[in-house]
Inverse folding.
């Protein structure tokens, strides 16, 4: 039960950071979101202890507020630019790309093609 | 000439699966029976490892620790697990699910073996973390005066908040499960680091496996260090993924072979060319992301830095150094980040940890520059008047560390000989050594260096066995038959490397089980140890003076008892050590004398783990504790509060009424001011804001401009106003920090 609640506590800021970074690749996006979620929860707790206002209830409220702010940033960005830019085409300069992977330009309209037309 | 016939594969298996996974389009799939055999072996190894653990007798342990009492079947199971992982590496293509399951099994087997053996969480030090967390949960603040670790309370505050928010009252399960969970979490950023590298899937998976198996230093228990290390890995992972220089800059025209350089001959130019000549970068081209994503990631990096600084005292220094090293070797485009990190770190030390450094300037900064004594203390110095077995384990630890370092250097050289320049790995491996001169760190800095070196070292060791930059058969002249051609071409060409790597993997896993749990005789915590402290807290409601036995002068060895001391009610415990009378264990007069000094709250505590520690590390006689306990029980002045086989608590039958020590009220963070401090508190946020704004602007200026834009050199001039603004602020903050250090005593 505690484990589920703890997962939920971290899942909220992680989801917020996930929505903030739509352009990154899925694995990078997920891991960065996890880093952001952990940093968010820890930062709220640290600010509370430094302000002398440490309390679990206030912390949960702080995490929720921070997540809402982050998610709001993501939503605002999406609204301003409704269609997210297409994901970048797969990088062709990678080391493991072979000649077979690069699409060959087809010569459809060749200069001499009329020769073969009926 | 061999002709490889591709079998028809189902489309979902043939499809490439992201980074490096589908690297070999021509690689034939493994036959299904082979896969099934690997899975079956994995299951057998798991069963062999875990099932016999039920019959382990921990009391039979000697100075060699856990490895001496583990059943042969368990060790065999560990070997089977290692070999099945290596067999999966020998398969023609990566089976990611299988490999992930094997790494997960390795984590739970190596880092969680004591979960099945010991009733409560091992390692006394982790119980002090529990004490800090309990203190914050109860008082909702900290007390800098109680312990130096309260000066960086970020992690304790974080854990206390999480535990309290989810209603987990009992911290013990968290302490127990922390090592496997943290090791699992470390792999997340490590995946990000690995995927940017120009290496085969075998090298990457072997590096991830090694990262688990070579992490024997035991810094992964629930502690600020373990948490800050996770943040460090995230920090580095984000830097190398999205803030790398574009590779064009590393292969400028001037680095290519020209007619002039071609004519250079001789030994000097060969060495020169090998060191600085044209090389392929060891990293794949950085993925292009927009300025918006980079700005968000920059803020995230800053947040990681702040959280890490508030949580641990050593790690932010390494974050700064890693970022600085990457910038210096042109693998990081965030040139201002090391300065931001340095400012944050210096400001935290100056403003927040003043309670710690004000009273002991000599001690803290005395470690600075005493490099040689630090090295000596953290390696040979740790081996003193100790038991033969413990000493051998200590030498084995040094041997493993030196081997790992040596193989990593060899791997670096092997890649360099292939014309690959692994700068990110080089930086990450060298950076931890910069902390040698920083501080003494209780003679532990050697362990920390190994710990922080590990991500890069594992990678470089994997390169030693699998150095190829990408997975493709080497092009050979088919008319020339190579020697041992069967093993160097075709499907079997990976087997020799995997076989040699298996030998290393077996030895490092065995070494792990030997040294990680080598001190288990005194690093285990028994339920009675915890109960001893509960009994004292229940028996006396004021400040308790705990008297404990030390074989050596505790001031000289810097020790505390090897018990779960102060695991709760931190402020109610004081500690006083009694140096053992080595001649006569029955001489308890010194103990009685010290108990009298403690007043009505004096207790003498001894536990079996603590006694074993004194026997193994300080050369106390093996029967000393038993005879001392008998003498204490027989003494007319002493009454037994609690005693069983594992722990015992004694107190005076008629304790003196004085002195009664009041329970200290929480003293907070112990911030102190100086004449210039208010100005510093204003300058500091402005400085950080200006530096961050400057970095954001740089990112925007670095982004490729449209056609007709200014050349980059001219665009960078637009940074100057912010630079000019930042400089005086930086000087002012530095001046305030220096002033605080001089004024506050």
């Amino acid at each position: 039960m505690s484990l589920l609640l703890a997962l939920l506590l971290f899942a909220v800021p992680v989801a917020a950071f996930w929505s903030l970074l739509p352009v990154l690749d899925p694995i990078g996006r997920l891991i960065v979101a996890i880093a952001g979620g952990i940093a968010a929860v820890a930062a709220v707790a640290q600010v509370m202890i430094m302000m002398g206002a440490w309390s679990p209830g206030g912390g949960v409220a702080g995490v929720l507020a921070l997540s809402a702010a982050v998610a709001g940033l993501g939503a605002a960005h999406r609204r301003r630019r409704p269609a997210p830019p297409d994901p970048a085409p797969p990088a062709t300069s990678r080391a493991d790309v072979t000649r077979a992977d690069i699409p060959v330009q087809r010569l459809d309209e060749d200069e001499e093609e009329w020769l073969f037309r009926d | 000439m061999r002709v490889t016939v591709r079998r028809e594969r189902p489309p979902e298996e043939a499809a490439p699966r992201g980074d490096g996974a589908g690297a070999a389009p021509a690689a034939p799939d493994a036959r299904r029976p082979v896969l099934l055999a690997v899975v079956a072996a994995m299951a057998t190894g798991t069963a062999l490892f875990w099932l016999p653990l039920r019959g382990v007798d921990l009391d039979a342990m000697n100075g060699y620790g856990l490895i001496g009492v583990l059943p042969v079947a368990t060790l065999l199971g560990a070997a089977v697990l290692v070999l099945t992982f290596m067999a999966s590496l020998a398969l023609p293509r990566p089976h990611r699910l299988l490999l992930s399951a094997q790494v997960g099994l390795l984590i739970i087997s190596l880092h969680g073996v004591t979960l099945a053996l010991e009733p409560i969480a091992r390692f006394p030090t982790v119980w002090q973390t529990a004490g800090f967390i309990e203190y914050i949960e109860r008082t909702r603040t900290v007390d800098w005066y109680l312990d130096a670790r309260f000066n960086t309370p970020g992690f304790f505050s974080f854990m206390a908040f999480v535990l309290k928010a989810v209603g987990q009252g009992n911290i013990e399960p968290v302490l127990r499960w922390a090592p496997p969970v943290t090791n699992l979490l470390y792999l997340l950023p490590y995946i990000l680091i690995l995927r940017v590298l120009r290496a085969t899937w075998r090298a990457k998976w072997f590096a991830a496996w090694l990262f688990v198996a070579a992490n024997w230093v035991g810094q992964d228990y629930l502690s600020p260090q373990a948490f800050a290390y996770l943040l460090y890995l995230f920090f580095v992972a984000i830097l190398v993924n999205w803030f790398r220089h574009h590779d064009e800059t590393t292969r400028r025209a001037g680095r290519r072979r020209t007619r002039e350089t071609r004519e250079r001959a001789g030994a000097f130019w060969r060495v020169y060319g090998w060191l600085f000549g044209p090389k392929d970068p060891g990293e794949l081209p950085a993925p292009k992301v927009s300025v918006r994503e980079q700005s968000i990631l920059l803020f995230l990096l800053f947040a990681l830095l702040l959280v890490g600084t508030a949580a641990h005292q050593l790690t932010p220094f390494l974050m700064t150094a890693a970022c600085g090293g990457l910038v210096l070797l042109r693998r990081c485009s965030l040139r201002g980040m090391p300065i931001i990190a340095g400012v944050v770190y210096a400001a935290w030390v100056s403003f927040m940890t003043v309670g710690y450094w004000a009273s002991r300037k000599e001690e803290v900064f005395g470690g600075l520059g005493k490099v040689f004594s630090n090295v000596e203390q953290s390696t040979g110095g740790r081996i003193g008047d100790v038991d033969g077995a413990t000493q051998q384990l200590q030498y084995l630890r040094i041997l493993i560390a030196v081997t790992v370092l040596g193989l990593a250097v060899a791997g670096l050289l092997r890649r360099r000989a292939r014309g690959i320049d692994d700068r990110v790995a080089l930086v990450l491996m060298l950076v931890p050594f910069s902390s040698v001169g920083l501080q003494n760190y209780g003679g532990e800095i050697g362990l920390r260096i190994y710990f922080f070196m590990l991500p890069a070292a594992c990678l470089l060791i994997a390169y030693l066995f699998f150095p190829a930059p990408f997975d493709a058969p080497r092009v050979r002249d088919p008319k020339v038959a190579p020697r041992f051609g069967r093993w160097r071409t075709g499907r079997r060409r990976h087997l020799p490397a995997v076989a040699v790597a298996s030998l290393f993997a077996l030895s490092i896993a065995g070494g792990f089980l030997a040294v990680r749990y080598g001190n288990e005789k005194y690093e285990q915590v028994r339920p009675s140890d915890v109960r001893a402290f509960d009994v004292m807290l229940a028996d006396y409601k004021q400040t308790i003076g705990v008297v404990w036995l030390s074989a050596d002068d505790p001031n000289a060895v810097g020790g505390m008892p090897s018990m779960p001391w102060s695991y709760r009610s931190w402020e109610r415990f004081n500690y006083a050590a009694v140096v053992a009378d080595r001649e006569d264990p029955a001489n308890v007069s010194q103990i009685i004398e010290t108990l009298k000094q403690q007043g009505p709250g004096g207790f003498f505590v001894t536990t079996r783990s603590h006694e074993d520690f004194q026997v193994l590390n300080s050369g106390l006689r093996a029967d000393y504790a038993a005879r001392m306990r008998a003498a204490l029980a027989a003494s007319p002045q002493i009454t037994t509060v609690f005693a069983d086989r594992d722990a015992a608590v004694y107190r005076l039958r008629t304790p003196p009424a004085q002195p009664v020590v009041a329970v200290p009220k929480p003293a907070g963070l112990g911030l102190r001011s100086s004449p210039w401090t208010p100005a510093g508190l204003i300058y500091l946020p402005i400085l950080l804001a200006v530096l961050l704004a400057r970095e954001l602007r740089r990112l925007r200026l670095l982004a490729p401009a449209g056609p007709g834009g200014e050349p980059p050199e001219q665009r960078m001039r637009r940074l100057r106003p912010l630079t000019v603004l930042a400089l005086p602020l930086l000087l002012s903050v530095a001046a305030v920090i220096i002033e605080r250090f001089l004024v506050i005593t």
Chain A touches chain B through 47 residues (CB under 8 Å).
